[in-house]
Design goal:
This protein is mostly helical. The chain has one domain. It has ten helices and two strands, in the order H-H-H-H-H-H-H-E-E-H-H-H. It has a two-stranded antiparallel sheet with strand order 1-2. A hairpin with a 2-residue loop joins strand 1 and strand 2. Helix 1 packs parallel to helix 5 and helix 6 packs antiparallel against helix 7. Keywords: Membrane, Transmembrane, Transmembrane helix. This is Tryptophan-rich sensory protein.
Length: 234
């Protein structure tokens, strides 16, 4: 990749980030808020403050890329267009505020998976992976929330003979198991820590006992295995 094209990629990253920021802060509709209270997997409002951390870490990563060393330049080349595409998809999902939003946030999740896989392939340091671990973790939870919000908004109370509560328990369980597997396979503490944050917020916001039991159980399990993993490294 020649220098001009490489600079163009970095500028495109910055432009995509600004699009995500503007879309999220100024253009997002109230579609999700209108249907929030009736969704079993909706976390407490404070949980969404994690976006502030994500925006900050992404901003620092992008700014550092303009003064990058050889290691960071290799990382930027490896993740290529997948990174800006994920931000564009994420920003678009909050603007649409309609049923198609679930498609865009799901595609954003998939592109982030590609970004993270490429980061692992190139052997990037943990400091460079950190923004994407948190971004990927929260987008995973946001995708679950968005799916149920869209279904509820369209009046769908049952799918394949299973009601919303059943699907909520199933997807929360699958999400928690993915977080556990991610920790053991990737040795990444931040991704499961995001699930601790998100599931803790769901526990704090929901009144259904089954939902509270599932989320509390995974918070405890994730904290235990992370603490155990950290102590074993000492």
């Amino acid at each position: 990749m020649n220098n001009m094209r490489f600079l163009g990629l970095k500028l495109f990253n910055l432009a995509s980030y600004l699009y995500l920021l503007v879309a999220s802060l100024f253009l997002a509709g109230d579609f999700y808020r209108q249907n929030a209270d009736s969704v079993y997997v909706m976390p407490a409002p404070f949980a969404f403050s994690i976006w502030g951390l994500i925006y900050l870490l992404l901003f620092l990563f992008i700014m550092k890329s303009f003064f990058a060393d050889e290691t960071l330049n290799d990382i930027i080349k490896q993740i290529g267009l997948w990174f800006p595409i994920s931000m564009i998809l994420s920003g678009t999902s909050v603007i649409l505020g309609t049923t198609p939003s679930i498609l865009f946030i799901s595609l954003s999740l998939l592109t982030l998976c590609v970004v993270y896989t490429n980061l692992r392939r190139v052997g990037s340091p943990r400091t460079y992976r950190a923004p994407f671990s948190i971004y990927l973790g929260w987008t995973s939870i946001a995708t679950i929330v968005a799916a149920f919000t869209v279904l509820k908004a369209n009046g769908i109370e049952e799918l394949f003979g299973i009601e919303e509560l059943g699907w909520s328990i199933l997807l929360l369980t699958v999400g928690g198991l993915i977080a556990i597997a991610f920790f053991f396979l990737q040795k990444d503490y931040l991704f499961p820590l995001v699930f601790v944050w998100g599931y803790g917020a769901i526990f704090a916001y929901q009144e259904n006992e089954l939902i509270r039991f599932i989320t509390a159980a995974f918070v405890i399990i994730l904290l235990f295995i992370m603490a155990y993993g950290w102590l074993r490294k000492k």
